Amino acid sequence: MRSITSRPVFRRLVGTVVVGVALATTSGCTVPVDAVAGVSVSGEGQLLGVMMVCGHHIDGATLFVSSEDPDLDVTVGSWASDRHLAPGLTTWPLDTPADGWTTTTPLASLTAETVYSFYGWTKDSSWSAASVSFTLADRARLTPGMVLYDDGEEPTALVPMEEFKAKACAPESGTATASP
User: Fold this and answer.
1) What are the E-state strand segments in the chain?
2) Is the pTM of this model over 0.90?
3) What is the mean pLDDT of residues 83-106?
């Protein structure tokens, strides 16, 4: 019986499949971004989580210290909302219990020289929030009504809350994929 496919064509086909499988297994998938995380402080100086949801929802947030190996990241605090955070702005204190929030990992003491990252997530990994990274020196710059976030140009942009609310989900910000 005679083959209907020539050997060179078959080899190319197998080679293409092997390369495709190799690329698929080595390329990382990311959760789409549809919110922007920031931090602020209350009038009493409490650290606040700030989340601007752009079009879908967010279920919680985590503060962590990053490692070169993501499996070695250290969670410093984690919070789950009692209900989906719908599009719009939400703030809550990170160091005390807050109505509508469950603290899954209480906020640990923050230390100088450490870079912290804060981001939002969904339980089913369908959406995430663009993260903000900061140090205690960055936190010291915060005053009530000001938000520290990554605006796509400056990783520690410090802006009034109203400006954050107006610009965080704007397509030109480059931080979120959907609009409100």
Assistant:
1) 33-41, 47-53, 58-65, 74-85, 88-93, 101-105, 116-121, 128-130, 132-134, 146-149, 157-160
2) no
3) 95
